[in-house]
Structures are given as structure tokens and as C-alpha cells.
Amino acid sequence: MQSDQYSYIPILMQFILAVGFVVGTIIISGKLGPKRTSEIKDKNFECGIESVGNARIPFSVKYFLVAILFVLFDVEVIFLYPWAVNFKELGIEGMLKMIVFMALLLVGFFYIIKKKALDWE
After folding, report:
1. Could you tell me the CA-to-CA distances from 108 to 50, 63, 112 in Å, in that order?
2. Of 11, 19, 20, 39, which is least surrounded by CB within 10 A?
3. Using one digit for the tens of pLDDT, what is the confidence trace for 81-91?
4. Quick one: pLDDT at residue 110?
5. Are 17 and 10 contacting, i.e. CB atoms less than 8 angstroms apart?
6. Which residues are within 8 A (CB) of 90 and not within 5 positions of it... i.e. 6 or more apart?
């Protein structure tokens, strides 16, 4: 083996260890875990509050739209951090690229405001 291939051995070992740990934990918990079930143990329990009704209640599409928009704009803001850290090294070219990026971000933001995607009715 060449010396470049030797550098992958720790990665392979870590992968085998991780997979072995997961498989071993699943097998051991299935064999050694408690087997007693009852109606009270099988009942759904969430934060000390008794479950009432069906868990499949419909949510408003607005909820999911706001959640997706939040994630979208949050990820776009993450791109600002490396730019701010390397602001001086990027120079005027980096500044122009960031202006284009921010302009596109603002166009999208004004579009969702115009479509009233963030208005709760």
C-alpha cells in the first residue's frame, strides 16, 4: 500500500467502531432489555401532560411556510459570517459579490412580504 492509502486507516477504523457500537447496542438492548408491557407503560406520555385526542391534527400551511422561510433566511445569514471574518482579504471584489448576494436576499425578502407569506390571518 502507498503512504496515501495508510492515511485512510484511522477513518476506516472509526467507521467500523461506530457501526459496531450501534449494531451491538441494538442487539444487546433487544436481548437484555425489559420484556414486560402493560397498558399503562404503552400509553403515550409527553412532558407530564396526558395525551388527549389524535396526534394527526392538521396544521396550517402558514406554519410550515414560516418555518421553511426561517430556515432559508437563517442559512443565508450564515454565509455572512465567513465574509465578515475575511472582509479585508477579499477586497473590493468580495464587497461587490456580497452586495449582489444581499440584493438577491432582499429581493426574496420583499417578494415574500409582497405575497403576504408572513401575515397571520
Report:
1. 42, 19, 6
2. 39
3. 888 888 889 89
4. 92
5. no
6. 83, 97
- Which cell is 52 given? 388527549
CA-closest candidate to residue 61, choices 108, 110, 121: 121
Query: How far apart, in whole angstroms, are the C-alpha atoms of residue 31 and residue 86?
Result: 54
Distance CA 108, CA 92 (A): 24
C-alpha cell, 39: 397498558
Cell 406520555 locates to 45
Q: In the structure grid, which three cell numbers stand for residue 79, read together?
A: 454565509
| Residues 6+ away with beta carbon under 8 Å from 120 | 62
For 10-23, how does the pLDDT look when each residue is reduced to its tens digit (9 = 90+)?
Answer: 999 999 999 999 99
- Residue 93, all three cell numbers: 471584489
User: Which residues touch 50 (CB under 8 Å, ≥6 apart)?
Assistant: none
